[in-house]
Amino acid sequence: MVYRSKIDAWLAVLLGGAMAAVVCACVELVVRDPPAMLLQLALVVLPGIGLPAWILVGTRYQLTRDALLVRCGPGRWRIPVADIERVTPSRDWASSPALSLDRLRVEYGGRTLLISPRDTERFLRELDALRSR
Fold it and tell me: 89: how many CB neighbours lie within 10 A of its CB?
């Protein structure tokens, strides 16, 4: 089962504003000197719009028979279900592949990862079923 990340409105506005600022900067570049600015435009557009969009659209969590797979933009994590020691609610502000402050703290192998599945209850039920096998 794949669970998309819950997205807090403030974060969507922040990332959307950043993308809008990049678009405005690109328009300014094109107006000033269109042919000379194509390379600079590509260098600004790809990371400035592509990365925030990739994060907003692509942050998700997948439970397989033996692992929790986490994707957030270019980031990838694979956590074996057998290694998960504890999952607790959190509102930690730490950087993580979670687009909401309504988070779950996944503790595994001496490490921690914060995630924010939209359907937390269903996610926890499925994870508990996998862990009890």
Answer: 10
Supply the mean pLDDT for the chain: 92
Residues 61, 3: contact at Cβ < 8 Å? Answer: yes
- State phi, psi for 38 to the nearest 5 degrees: -60, -45
Mean pLDDT of 84-106: 96
What span, in angstroms and rounded, lies between the C-alpha atoms of 23 and 18? 9
Which neighbouring-strand residues pair with 76? 71
Q: Kindly report the pTM of this predicted structure.
A: 0.87
d(CA 1, CA 54): 20
Q: Residue 97, Cβ neighbours under 10 Å: how many?
A: 21
Return the number of other C-beta atoms located less than 10 Å from residue 50's C-beta. Answer: 13
Q: Which residues of 99-133 are buried (b: 16+ CB within 10 A; e: fewer)?
A: bbeebbbbebeeeebbbbbbebeebeeebeebeee
Residues 6 or more apart whose Cβ sits within 8 Å of residue 67: 78, 79, 80, 81
